[in-house]
Specification:
Length: 338
């Protein structure tokens, strides 16, 4: 089979297209013929030096394809099943940038018949991260679904990003009113396509005031991508007992804030990353994401605010470079034919 690998960390030039033996699934594992591989920022960050420890790595946490072999004891999936993958390369060397990947059954989820492989490969990191960001509140719902966020206001910082887009779609499906901040009219259009009720261009006027005009009592949840820059907005805009979910460090690696402002509102700050989530939280997210997909509430494509950028497997380096350069939308690798 063809696979993209690297045996040392560094720039994208360390990636190499090679031929490897077809892997066989062991007990509790399935082999998936990968149709699409999704590229996330962690793929290039790991490759650049944040993560090492194996002689050879096939990148790719997300993907979608077809089960073509099952190991002993597997009852959850059968040959021919359409599936999507989550955490495919977490804690293991071989991810989804290969024609086949062997995965534990817990990292393989059914893909609805009406869902495209493009959508399946776009779910894992963005949608599961967004799910946790929306369900980490002390007194809020632990699961998402129609009505679970009814009457609540969600602020999504950077609504044109992959996680931000997923948060908008999941929050709207769950009944929330969604306010999002963006930096340009182009990104505003994408956020509206995702379903945002109110879009604030933070480069035009007072973003905090604009948010407070929509939510004078404060927002219930802030999904935060740039805490170093936005902490002032979060402290003013989030209501008493509200939640600030921080999933990225855009705009700075250090966060400084006035503690009394946070004390006074009894705010909950949830720092989160997918790779160290408890398994039961990942499973709950996968179940809710599948329900949203089945309901048509999670979509990709320009009309959903997620432009798609396709690269062939032998251009995986270019795909990772595109993500590193800040490509708006979702970067996908076409691995095999559907």
């Amino acid at each position: 089979m063809r696979a993209v690998v690297y045996d040392k960390t560094g720039p994208s030039s360390v990636l190499e297209l090679v031929e490897r033996d077809l892997p066989e699934p062991g007990p509790g594992e399935v082999r998936v013929r990968v149709v699409r591989s999704g590229v996330n920022p962690t793929d290039w960050k790991f490759r650049a030096g944040m993560m090492a420890g194996w002689d050879e790595v096939v990148p790719g946490q997300d993907g979608a394809g077809v089960v073509d072999a099952v190991g002993p004891g597997v009852e959850e999936h059968a040959v021919g099943d359409r599936v999507w993958l989550v955490l495919a390369q977490h804690g293991r060397p071989y991810g989804t940038a290969a024609e086949h990947t062997v995965q534990p059954v817990g990292r393989v989820a059914p893909l609805a018949d009406e869902a495209s492989y493009d959508l399946g490969a776009s779910l894992g990191v963005p949608a599961v991260t967004a799910h946790r960001a929306l369900t980490a509140g002390e007194d809020g719902p632990q699961r998402l679904g129609p009505g679970t966020l009814a009457g609540r206001v969600v602020l999504v910082a950077g609504g044109a990003g992959a996680v931000g887009n997923a948060a908008i779609q999941l929050a709207r499906w769950s009944g929330a009113t969604v306010v999002t901040t963006v930096s340009s009219e182009e990104k505003a259009a994408l956020a509206r396509a995702a379903g945002a009720d109110h879009v604030v261009n933070y480069r035009e006027g007072d973003a905090t005031r604009a948010i407070q005009e929509v939510a004078p009592d404060g927002v219930d949840i802030a999904v935060e991508v740039a805490p170093a820059q936005n902490i002032g907005i979060d402290l003013e805009a989030v209501k008493v007992h509200g939640l600030v979910s921080i999933y990225a460090n855009n705009g700075g690696d250090e966060l400084t804030m006035p503690l009394r402002a946070a004390f006074g509102k009894n705010l909950r700050f949830q720092f989160l990353i997918l790779y160290t989530l408890h398994d039961h939280l990942v499973r709950a997210a996968v179940e809710d994401v599948n329900a949203a997909v089945a309901a048509g509430a999670l979509r990709v494509g320009a009309d959903a605010g997620v432009p798609l950028h396709h690269f062939p497997l032998d251009e995986t380096a270019a795909a990772q470079d595109a993500v590193e350069a800040g490509a708006v939308g979702k970067v996908l690798i076409d691995v095999t034919d559907a």
